[in-house]
Amino acid sequence: QNAGSGEAPKHEDEAKQAEQEDEEAEQEVEEAEQEEEAEQEDEAEQEDEEAEKEDDEAEQQQEESEQEMKKKWMRQQSRRREWQQLER
Fold it and tell me: Residue ranges under compositional bias (Basic and acidic residues) (predicted)?
């Protein structure tokens, strides 16, 4: 036996190696989970930005529509005044 030579028995080396491989695999799983979580956060952030952009665009369209209505109303008022003056 090589107990006096300072070398660990073979089965101990194998156990250490298996433990190390388990730890590495665990670390890889953790990293993959963190990566996936980060991707999901990025996606959610992007969706929020897109929704905000759509809200802004809708608001702008609403404002433009209101401006258009105001212009039409002003034109109608102007025409009414013209007609009233013509009728006199």
Answer: 8-19, 79-88
Q: And the tokens for 33? A: 């989970």
Task: Report how far residue 45's alpha carbon sits from residue 6's, in angstroms, rounded to the nearest whole number.
Answer: 57
d(CA 61, CA 63): 5
More confident residue, 14 or 26: 26
Domain interval for residue 53 = 12-87
Q: How many domains does the chain have?
A: 1
Percent of the chain at pLDDT exceeding 90:
77
- Report CA dihedral (63, 69, 72, 76) to the nearest 10 degrees: -140
Asked if residue 1 is part of any domain, the answer here is no
In 3D space, the residue among 71, 45, 32, 76 whose CA is nearest the CA of residue 53 turns out to be 45
